[in-house]
Please model this.
Amino acid sequence: MAKKNPHLNPETFRDSLATVLDDGKRNWVYPKKVKGFFYKYRTYVSWVLLGILFAGPFIKVDGRPWLLFNIFERKFIIFGAVFWPQDTYLLIFLLLIFFVFVILFTVAFGRVWCGWACPQTLFMEMVFRKIEYLIEGDANQQRALNAQPWNQEKIVKKSIKISVFAFISLLIGHLMMAYLIGIEAVLEIVSSPPTAHMAGFIGLIAFSGIFMFVFTWFREQACLVVCPYGRLQGVMLDNNSINVMYDYVRGEPRAPIRKNAAENVDKGDCVDCSLCVQVCPTGIDIRNGIQMECVNCTACIDACDEVMVKVDRPTGLIRYASENSIKQGFQKLLTGRVKSYIVVLVLLLTVFVSLIATRDDISATITRFPGMTYQEREDGMVTNLYQITLINKTFEPQEVELKSLAEGMNVEIVGAQHLVLDAQSKFEGRFFLVRNQDEVKVNQEKVELALFYKGEKIDEIETNFTAPIK
Model:
């Protein structure tokens, strides 16, 4: 008969945060340096992801950025494809796909994203934490350094650490701005006096300051307090979701291993060494079960496996597993819930691909000029004035032609007779629809206009033509 986990009692650990003391003050976490199988491969993965992250603004596709999230000009480039405000429906679908994927991934694999790919974890654990270990030493040495008075050793180490942290924060701040406004704009800002681009300069300093604050002081609180994902995971997970789990069936009752083998009878494999708690970057005890604070960083797995090898016990006392797999001994991944999310995700992807495939590279919006109905000319012609807005979503200049599909009706462009659109630009102009007064049959006529590019019709727009009947 499967054992019950005696530590799953909300009265003992779910009513407080590990990083907050009883008096409400911050309980500073000093995670012990970890090493092991998972930490080694997390390091390799972090190198690859950080390399991609820093290379992103420099990657070009046909001369345009690979990724750009220009919220100021409301222009987004995702994997080389540009999206304008008129493509809001596409961005909505893209967000829906992202959210459904996150839900599906969390339902199946828990918070693997947080431990292996989240930028907060990558920078905190694989960059800033490593630098801190290098300068100040392991957890006990950091505690001792912070507790001692401000002597020469403390001033030197703290100054070096803050200087390095500030430099890396500046790099991250510039990287963030490059994703927002483009690498060329960032290079122009940094190569000019601050007064030449004051808004950009303030933005760079603000982003760098935020990152300095987060990685120097706020740290794990960003995951526990700010990030909504940790709080939402509670409604996403079920007993079949794979997480970093403590095998309480095998581990309980926990007790130190004694030299006398007879004393070890009826004891679990957990030797109660608390190393899993000491290496945790959020200060929790994984043996209490799934917790909001757990980011699935696998530090506890590596620490526990090392102890299990030393006491001649099988590794995997803490491992990737689900609640049901621990109780029942087998894992069921493709549950009905997972299959449902997969179906929804496939449907959304299908619709999104269809919308992308049928999207026009040039879009047109035509409206009647406000405050005017029709104008009669001395030559017997009657005209209506319109406004036209054209958006070139491509990265090449385009020349288009506007024609009326109604027989006997002509288009007269105000100003230049050719509609020339610069790359990634918006064109606003005016034009007249002209018809012979004698050919007017109704007061308000529906008219089809067509947009042509290189002789090929690329869009049709419907509007109304108003004129008196004589």
User: Anything to note?
Assistant: The longest helix spans residues 152-181. Residues 263 and 412 are 99 Å apart (CA to CA). DSSP finds 16 helices and 16 strands in the chain.
